[in-house]
Design a protein that fits this description.
A hairpin with a 7-residue loop joins strand 5 (273-280) and strand 6 (288-295). The protein has one domain (25-30, 38-430): Up-down Bundle (Outer membrane efflux proteins (OEP)), CATH 1.20.1600.10. The protein is of the alpha+beta class and 431 residues long. It contains eleven helices and six strands.
Length: 431
């Protein structure tokens, strides 16, 4: 709608022209065009995020870390391999088995499972970070594309002004300086259009990197810049964040595993068992079979209390303090992201409903008046620059609002509509 309004303003002044001045055609031909040999991949924001979650190499590395943690669960409860012995002189063969105390295996397995769950939550957080980065990169491409469109319209407006100034100069109602100013304004608009194409290329490369595609691969966004939905209440988001943030849940699993390790260290006095089976085949006597059972002898108790047990207890306290600080950090993240999102949406709405319509009306009046011999060239240039600036501010504000929503969702650790649903259910239950 915004583009069509700008196009309508441009048509107002160009109906009497009958064509585009040759100077613009010459400069436009020098602007490099994007290669069209390969059809671009067209993605919505949701599809871009899904593609990044499936193919981003950072997440592939995180998935391998989860598999490593799963393998460590087996390592934590594995039994020692048996040891075989053979004495040639006595022709005695033996097999020795080590059997750890059963509860030690249980606690070791519990700690390993907690580490696995913590790694899974770390993967969830990495996925949310990649999703937020992809959404923001997608919005950056939308903003860059919108700027390019705005500068195209700015070139059209500049062409219209050059034509009107030339007509007035020919009719003797404008000075030669006005014609020069109009051409300088057109050159500036064309230069901004060239620079905007570089911004589009860089934004596309950044998004392609997150999607694990070739940086120069053609990519076309299917969505457009729009105002995001409302973010709901701060209280519901804070509640959801305390329940859903992966780093909080990961830390809770780490504390559970640390407690299991502390209990494991406290069982230092429980002996491990060693069973040895041997068979003797002496030439001078009968073949004999023996079974030996050995127990480890816990003796140096002060070493365990001052060493492993003390370390484990202090590690638990460290995690408890970290958990308290992280909870406060989560609340701060949500509050900051919420305030940023609300402010960004208010700014975008104000620019869209107040600033931009006023700038469009001001330019329309100045342009029509100038065509009729009324306004000065400076008035038209000021109005045109104000309109272009308002267009740029709207694109930045819409992109910033969508980025703020992505950052708020990352701070909450869950989709924002989940908070709305939970808040609605709570309100209904209270009624």
């Amino acid at each position: 709608m915004l583009t069509s309004m700008l196009a309508a303003v441009a048509v107002l002044g160009s109906t009497a022209l009958g064509g585009v001045p040759p100077a613009r055609t010459a400069v436009a031909s020098a602007i490099p065009a994007a290669p069209d040999t390969v059809p671009p991949l067209t993605l919505t924001r949701r599809q871009a995020v899904a593609t990044a979650l499936a193919h981003n190499p950072q997440l592939q590395a995180a998935r391998e870390q989860v598999s490593q943690a799963r393998a460590r669960v087996w390592e934590a409860v594995e039994l020692p391999d048996p040891i075989g012995t053979y004495t040639p002189k006595s022709r005695a063969a033996g097999l020795e088995f080590g059997v750890p105390f059963p509860d030690k295996l249980r606690l070791s397995g519990s700690a390993a499972h907690s580490n696995l769950h913590a790694t899974e939550f770390d993967y969830t957080q990495a996925s949310q970070q990649i999703a937020a980065q992809t959404a923001q990169a997608y919005d950056a491409l939308l903003v860059a594309t919108r700027h390019e469109q705005d500068f195209r319209n700015a070139v059209k407006l500049a062409d219209d002004f050059v034509s009107k100034t030339q007509d007035r100069y020919t009719g003797g109602t404008a000075a030669k300086l006005d014609v020069i100013k109009a051409k300088v304004d057109r050159a500036q608009a064309q230069n901004a259009l060239i620079a905007s194409r570089l911004d589009v290329s860089n934004a596309r490369a950044a998004l392609n990197r997150l999607l694990a595609r070739d940086l120069g691969a053609p990519l076309q966004p299917a969505d457009s810049l729009s105002m995001p939905d409302s973010v709901g209440s701060l209280e519901s988001l804070l509640t959801l964040a305390r329940q859903s943030r992966p780093d909080l849940r990961s830390l809770a699993e780490q504390r559970h595993g640390a407690h299991a390790l502390t209990n494991l260290q406290r069982e230092w006095w429980l002996p491990d068992l060693t069973v040895t089976l041997s068979r003797n085949r002496l030439q001078s006597g009968p073949t004999g079979t023996e079974t030996d059972i050995g127990l480890s002898l816990p003796l140096y108790f002060w070493q365990h209390h001052n060493g492993q047990i003390s370390e484990a207890k202090h590690y638990e306290r460290e995690l408890a303090a970290t958990s308290h600080d992280l909870t406060a950090q989560v609340d701060e993240d949500v509050r900051t992201a919420y305030a940023t999102a609300v402010t960004a949406m208010q700014q975008a709405e104000y620019i869209r409903s107040e600033l931009l319509p006023e700038a469009q009306q001001a330019y329309h009046i100045a342009s029509v008046s100038y065509g009729l011999g009324g306004s000065s060239a400076l008035d038209v240039l000021d109005a045109e620059r104000a309109l272009i600036d308002a267009e740029s501010q709207l694109a930045e504000a819409l992109g910033g609002a969508n980025d703020a929503i992505a950052q708020l969702q990352l701070a909450v650790g869950a989709p924002l509509n989940t908070a709305d649903a939970a808040h609605t259910a709570t309100s209904g239950g209270n009624q």
